[in-house]
């Protein structure tokens, strides 16, 4: 790999005239300049370095290109701020760290957008739809919030407008900002519902002021979405138990969950909604339910949830190592709990829920051997009883939760006799 530092130069729609003196000097001194064809055309003739256009797809070509020019003064051109949804991230990944990189940023498209709109960037949600499904936007829709959407192309604004209208956010105000910072900068506005503008320039950012239509369901940030938020056939961890289950699973940014026996996918979906970097794999043996999990993930803004159709434990083979495992179905399948426990790294969490006595007996055995917490969750709801009101009790859920020990194995939990005190094992 290259030993000389690679200089990454951010360049905007204003091209060469908009570059800072340091960026111009780096480009003039470069022996090789790598960039997109459109970016390379922005350079003047006195940038005499060899010009190399990125091939498509770009990512797999990066290591080879850097190796081919090792030891030369290399500049890589990036659009706007190289470290913001840009080539800078790819280069750090490929080089292993930032030590061999010198990054000279230019204002990003979102800096320009906030400057034009008078929006504080620190209080504006940014969603990139470049290489990501449109439905990723859904998790960011909250009344009163401001979003900047990085478009994938000229067609994105109309697609976003249609999605907003379909999801009850038709009254939202949209501002389309094209070619920000360049001589062809253009701005048009309109409501999401009935968005009136034909496709324009492919280089655009869409600003969204979220406004919900009357009756649009609220989708809050905390786990425990209303049961009606999910398409389901009854195989759904209900709201109150789901909220407790997510709290016990305790998602943190970047973590991966296995949702084993995914049912409708509600646990995996709410895990992923906890933070945009959270990932989940739902394993479901029933193909109809597996399809439903994918639809729920899409509808609730986490289309990256991975669905594996197959019966655990066999279907768990080869999955990436989880940070937490939830078992919502299949507890009595031979070897299932063993496979989940085996896959979990030290410090990983396992939570299993059941309503059957057979599975409860199994969980009690695991609780004795590995410790953790055994909890019984009994939720009752008030319902009409004739002209009065009474409690309707849902089936109680037994929950075992445990953190896999990092050091020596935990002392087994001794069964306790309420009269005699501690029993002998
Ligand atoms: C009670 S539901 C889980 C509900 C789910 N947590 C939710 O909120 O939608 C249990 C699910 O586990 C699935 N299941 C049972 N045994 C399984 C196995 N061995 N492998 C994969 N899925 C299994 C069933 O098909 C069912 O959909």
UniProtKB/TrEMBL annotation:
Keyword flag S-adenosyl-L-methionine: yes
Top-level taxon of origin: Bacteria
Family matches, as CDD domains: Precorrin-6Y-MT
Database matches in SUPFAM superfamilies: S-adenosyl-L-methionine-dependent methyltransferases (SSF53335), Tetrapyrrole methylase (SSF53790)
InterPro entries reported in the protein's UniProt record: 4pyrrol_Mease, 4pyrrol_Methylase_sf, 4pyrrole_Mease_sub1, 4pyrrole_Mease_sub2, CbiE, Cbl_synth_CobL, Cbl_synth_MTase_CbiT, Cobalamin_biosynth_MTase
Entry GO MF terms: protein methyltransferase activity
Pathway annotation from the record: Cofactor biosynthesis; adenosylcobalamin biosynthesis
Entry keywords, A to Z: Cobalamin biosynthesis, Methyltransferase, S-adenosyl-L-methionine, Transferase
Region (Disordered): 403-425
Biological processes, Gene Ontology terms: cobalamin biosynthetic process; methylation
Pfam family for this entry, one: TP_methylase
Limits of the Tetrapyrrole methylase domain: 6-193
Cited PANTHER family: COBALT-PRECORRIN-6B C(15)-METHYLTRANSFERASE (DECARBOXYLATING) (PTHR43182), COBALT-PRECORRIN-7 C(5)-METHYLTRANSFERASE (PTHR43182:SF1)
Record protein name field: Cobalamin biosynthesis bifunctional protein CbiET
Native organism: Streptomyces albireticuli
């Amino acid at each position: 790999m290259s030993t000389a530092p690679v200089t990454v130069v951010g360049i905007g729609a204003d091209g060469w005239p908009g570059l800072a003196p340091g960026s111009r000097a780096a480009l003039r001194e470069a022996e090789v300049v790598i960039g997109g064809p459109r970016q390379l055309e922005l350079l003047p003739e006195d940038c005499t370095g060899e010009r190399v256009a990125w091939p498509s797809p770009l990512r797999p070509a990066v290591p080879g290109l850097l190796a081919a020019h090792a030891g030369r003064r290399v500049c890589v051109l990036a659009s706007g701020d190289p470290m913001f949804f840009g080539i800078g991230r790819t280069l750090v990944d490929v080089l292993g760290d930032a030590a061999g990189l010198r990054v000279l940023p230019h204002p990003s498209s979102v800096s320009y957008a906030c400057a034009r709109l008078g929006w504080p960037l620190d209080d504006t949600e940014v969603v990139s739809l470049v290489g990501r499904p449109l439905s990723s936007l859904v998790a960011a829709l909250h009344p009163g919030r401001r979003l900047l959407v990085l478009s994938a192309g000229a067609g994105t604004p109309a697609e976003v407008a249609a999605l907003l209208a379909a999801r009850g956010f038709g009254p939202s105000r949209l501002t389309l900002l094209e070619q920000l910072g360049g001589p062809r900068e253009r701005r048009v506005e309109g409501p999401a519902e009935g968005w009136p503008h034909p496709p324009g320039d492919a280089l655009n950012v869409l600003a969204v002021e979220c406004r919900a239509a009357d009756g649009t369901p609220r989708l809050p940030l905390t786990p425990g979405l209303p049961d009606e938020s999910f398409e389901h056939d009854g195989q759904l961890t209900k709201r109150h138990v789901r909220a407790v289950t997510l709290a016990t699973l305790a998602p943190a940014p970047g973590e991966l969950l296995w949702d084993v026996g995914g049912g409708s996918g509600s646990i995996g979906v709410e895990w992923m909604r906890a933070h945009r970097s959270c990932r989940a794999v739902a394993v479901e043996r029933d193909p109809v339910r597996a399809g439903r999990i994918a639809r729920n993930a899409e509808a609730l803004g986490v289309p990256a949830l991975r669905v594996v159709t197959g019966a655990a434990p066999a279907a768990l083979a080869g999955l990436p190592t989880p940070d937490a495992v939830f078992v919502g179905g299949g507890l009595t399948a031979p070897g299932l709990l063993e496979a989940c426990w085996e896959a979990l790294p030290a410090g990983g969490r396992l939570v299993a829920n059941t309503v059957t006595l057979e599975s409860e007996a199994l969980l009690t055995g695991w609780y004795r051997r590995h410790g953790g917490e055994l909890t019984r969750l009994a939720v009752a709801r008030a319902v009409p009883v004739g002209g009065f009101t009474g409690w309707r009790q849902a089936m109680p859920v037994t929950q075992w939760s445990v953190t896999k020990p990092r050091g020596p194995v935990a002392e087994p939990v001794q069964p306790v006799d309420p009269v005699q005190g501690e029993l002998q094992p």
